[in-house]
């Protein structure tokens, strides 16, 4: 059975449409995307044989990216405290501290070390001052559980 050139390079939409028009697929069995595609067809048919567009992708780099790369290359900035209500990442705090120390005139070769040290101290202080919520579900469960005697009968 020979196939025509159009059948070989057709899109998934034209193939599904062909199955529907020839009765090989019931209208109730058509894919979910079929009606959406028919109502909102793309500007250009998404064919495999279509040449890729000539587009130059610009590099988008911010000044923080260089700082972030320095921290991550030295293994800093990968942790995150999920209990921190502010939602700030360690990397964001490191960058803020880096900028602050840089504006104070700290030498370039000491900026990362001092930023990491300052953020570490902040994290330690913050972990000690995390407010306990007695109304939370976890507190209620742990409050009623006898943890010390959990495995005793």
UniProtKB/TrEMBL annotation:
- One GO CC term on file: ribosome
Which coarse location class describes where this protein primarily resides? Answer: mitochondrion
Q: Which GO terms describe its biological process?
A: translation
What does the UniProt entry say about where the protein is found?
Mitochondrion
Kindly list the GO molecular function terms attached to this UniProt entry: structural constituent of ribosome
| Keywords noted in UniProt | Mitochondrion, Ribonucleoprotein, Ribosomal protein
- The reply to whether Iron-sulfur figures as a keyword in the UniProt entry is no
Which Pfam families does the record cross-reference, listed alphabetically?
MRP-S23
CDD domains on file: At1g26750 (cd23701)
Positions of the Small ribosomal subunit protein mS23 conserved domain? 2-121
InterPro entries in the record: mS23_dom (IPR059242), mS23_dom_met (IPR023611), Ribosomal_mS23_met (IPR019520)
Which protein family is named in the record? Belongs to the mitochondrion-specific ribosomal protein mS23 family.
Name of the protein this chain belongs to: Small ribosomal subunit protein mS23
Its source organism is: Papilio xuthus (Asian swallowtail butterfly)
